[in-house]
User: Fold this.
Amino acid sequence: MRGWEKNVRRPAPYVPGEQPKEKNIIKLNTNENPYPPAPGVREALRTMDPADFRKYPDPAAGLLVEAIAADRGFSPEEVFVGVGSDDVLAMAFLTFFNSSKPILFPDITYSFYDVWAELFHIPYECQPLDPDFRIRKEDYRKENGGIVFPNPNAPTGLLLPLEEVEEIIRENQDCVVIVDEAYIDFGGRSAAELIPRYENLLVVQTFSKSRSMAGMRIGYALGNRELIRCLNDVKYSFNSYTMNEAALRLGKAAVEDRAYFRDTCEKIISTREKAKRRLTELGFDFPDSMANFLFARHRTCPAETLFQALREAGIYVRYFKKPRISDYLRITVGTEEEMERLFAFLESYLSADSEREEKR
Ligand code: PMP
Assistant:
């Protein structure tokens, strides 16, 4: 080993879903929104001039912070923005998880949490979901250095009722509880309404899913002023200009179109509920997702086989070869047409598969 190698930090990185280059792929593998961003985003893009990029952007990201604050009914001092919620979450881990006691999160959850914990040398302890993949609130009643969980959880899609989220926050007022609400707009009730009552609550959301702007990289946190001040101090100790000028303007335009946002979420919810019925008919079972994806297992056909067959047919879904979840596929809710093509493929593949099975 060369001398310098012993000093190198070598995290085991998070593995993002594939972004295939080919056209005509039905892409149901990274929980993107199949619909375009609000029309106002196109308009805001049209009025941008490259000369606008000469100067540094506002380090406080005022334009976007104010738009989010107005939309959510908070004051700008209660809003923090970042380069996707990954950036916001990473910054929150670095800021709030600074104890020698372990932070707690579910064993089956967003697979970035343990990556950040390792990277920042934060001790952690995973709490097993119950056999039906539910978070057991009682598991979060032990000594800890902080708590983080997605609601709805990923990749299961299961929503923890707000009363149970509140119980976890209430019982852990000596540490920060981060509720990662990447998927909350598809049917859940946000914990943001609890912020006035709990100083230790940080709610994180993203523009990547419900606002169709994964490519623009915008995420945000809501919390009391003191928490947001702490986050900003860490941000300014790291990189003052996390949000670029385009993201600030386009993000503002996206937030301001509430009607489009509501319509898009409703379309996805309705497609998801139809997909639940169709997948059940096709022999799948799944937790009752409140997100923009379904986590489904087939009665007979192994998930890995299906994953490959779908891929060869140009339909990309996500498969995690991990303990407890290797029988499942995570399928993002696409447009009605995309889902119809998925069901048509599954129907013919699975019936051919059961014929093969009978001949064996
Ligand atoms: N939290 C959860 C639970 C997620 O699934 C994702 C998407 N990969 C994120 C956060 C991060 O999303 P983004 O950085 O695009 O806001």
The two ends are 53 Å apart (CA to CA). The chain is about 35% helix and 15% strand. The mean pLDDT is 96. The pocket of 4'-deoxy-4'-aminopyridoxal-5'-phosphate is lined by residues 84-86, 110, 150, 154, 180, 182, 206, 208, 214, 219 (CB under 6 Å).
